[in-house]
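Deliverable D4.2, example record:
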Amino acid sequence: PFVLAAARTQRKDPLDGLRYYTGGWNISSEHYWASVGFSAAPVFAAAGVWFAVFGAALFLAGCCYCCCPSRSTSYSRAALVVSLLLLLAFTAAAAIGCAILYDGQGRFHGSTAATVDYVVKQSGDTVDNLRAFSGFLEAAKAAGVGPVSLPDDLKGRIDGVVRRVSSASDELAARTASNSAKIRDALDTIRKILIVLAAGMLILAFAGLVFSACGLESLVYVLVFLGWILVAATFVMCGTFLLLHK
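Output generated by the structure prediction step:
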């Protein structure tokens, strides 16, 4: 065994007293996954904080709305203009954020897919080398000088090595095909979810602008609730992106 990419996997390991993990790429190690998960933990924590704090704010606002009698309030022209400008600014910011999210998911999918292709290619080369090595061993059994050939017990040992090497190469090829298919399915699923999130937030942003300008207060409240859920989901997907990227 040897360490793969030790310099690129130096992340704090919560299972080892937050000391840096130095085992390299080793997906069979719980310390590897703990260090990967810890690198994405701040974003998942931000999702929890957002969900709790904004949810509490929505609950308090709902209580105040239900408990306090509504009073008709007249606003000045300046207040209306400022409100409209803020609506336009926040809608533009949401649109820019959705565009960044869409572009980012495309680049993430492309880089991760390229990494998977590289690993699959290296695995394929290893399989080819193992099978070529088996061929060399088979040819070695026929080695000899004149009438003198290898003893039968040595030929039997060579046959045993050939069987083990062939079995290892077949298992490596099968596992590579299975794992790469699972990883590609997961990446495609995440890509679709991110695209739906970006499109959904963009639609909600423009719908909120239209509903606010038209004074449809109840629909605006519904959109605020949906936006609360979508932003939390975006934080979760961001954490998932970091986890897979690391």
